[in-house]
Amino acid sequence: MAEASGFSRRKLISLVGAAAGSAAAYQVMTSLGFAEESPYRGPIRLDGDPKGASVLVLGAGLAGMTAALELHRAGYRVQILEYNTRAGGRNWSLRGGDTYTELGGATQRCDFDAGLYLNPGPWRIPYHHHGVLDYCRRLGVALEPFIQLNHNAFVQSTAGFGGTPQRIRTVKTDFDGATAELLAKATRKGALDAEVSKEDQEILIEALRSLGGLDKDLAYRAGPDSAEFRGYAQDPGGGLSARPVDGEPMALHDILTSRLWRGLQNFLLYEFQTTMFQPVGGMGRIGEAFARALPPDTIRYGAKVTQIAQDGHGVTATYQDLAHGGAVRQAQADWCVCALPLTVLSQIPTQVGPKMKAAIDAVPYASSVKIGLQFKRRFWEEDEHIFGGISYTDLPIRQISYPSTGYNAGGKGVLLGAYTWNGPNSYEFTALSPAERVRRAVAYGSQIHPQYRTEFETGIAVAWHRVPFTLGCAGDWTDAARAEHYDNLCAIDGRIMLAGEHASYIPAWQEGAILSALDTVTRLHKRVLAA
Fold first, then answer.
1. What is the pTM of this model?
2. Which residue of 49, 109, 213, 396 could cross-link 226, Cys pair, CB 3.0 to 4.6 Å?
3. How far is CA 176 from CA 18, 172, 192, 238, 250, in A?
């Protein structure tokens, strides 16, 4: 989805990014193996005649459909078994009229107005996820910018500034300006003489003055220099009231103790840097486009796989046909690409060797909750001039994301009113009923936007550990588990291979699912030709 696993590494990167900026964070990420660009360099070619070989694909998420599409183009006979009545898996958009039933039986109806939607799973595509972008181009999925950073959005801490939200631009500018002043004055006092040449010190001071909004005395304070970065208490205007009023910077002590600087990490990290994209009309458009690109009847919907067996000649999947009263049926093929989430696969009797079975059982899934809220009017634009972007908070909802489309048109809108990732907030929201999740999202969000109280209309909440077809958000590898099990997870076990974001070094992202599938079918094709 939007996050990667590994708390200790993520914490280190966050602290470096907040204190030293995106360049330093990128260097740390590269050294840890997180900041590599996607290795995708164009469509794969599966040359050679498979001589009518057949492949059974389990799961019509992006990994499964990528595998099916490329194998079909290479001449294989392909069939997909899919639990849902739609394609896409976690690539999913909830729209008005949709219904969704979670584990435990709670059913929600989405009552959003036409054209409005929530992406419960993936919701943004980084510019360096070349595989996703290429398939969108080839399959005709129109994209538009996703606004990750909006300087006019908020960061909010219940312990800082009396809980009053602060604009990202003022927190970032005041933090950068105050630290630039400290470093510039320390340099002037000779504190860096042992580290930096005199010539470089003068260049550094000039850079700090320019980038930090410092005045001629190397001070960061209210004035035209800082106002050019942080904005004004009163913007420049026209006529007799045209004269601007410079804003008063926040004290560095207040920024530090409020911990508001933590919110700045979310657009400094490499995986969230601009430009980011979203499909026009919802992330689910990608899954829909993949399904259209496959031959009719390739996907058998409502098929709940209950057993996977293999021998020296082929693979047999037993499944319940949910569209016909749960009748037990079987599907057979020469080979199998299994793209089921490991949380589901680990509960299905599967005839694989002990190493692959141990790998399947070794990977827990991250917990995540997303809540979409529809409002009578786009008050964030009309009242607070926030057009797209994300506000960050230490409240349990963690984030509020504003729609990156339909700007300045008036009318209703849907906010992502909560997005939690692992930790106690996710587990707390997951334990609640859907209605209570929505109620709390409105209550917490009103501490940032008081308009919630009068403008809220309807909402829908998805807790991923209660989603029947995944039982969790995404594979949450530890370094130790990856070192022991990853290669075994990706290996060919007889006639069965796995694919999905869990079988990649880009967990929780669609790019990981696609790259995993391409690697899987490439190795499978070589095995078929060799046989």
1. 0.91
2. 213
3. 10, 6, 19, 31, 11
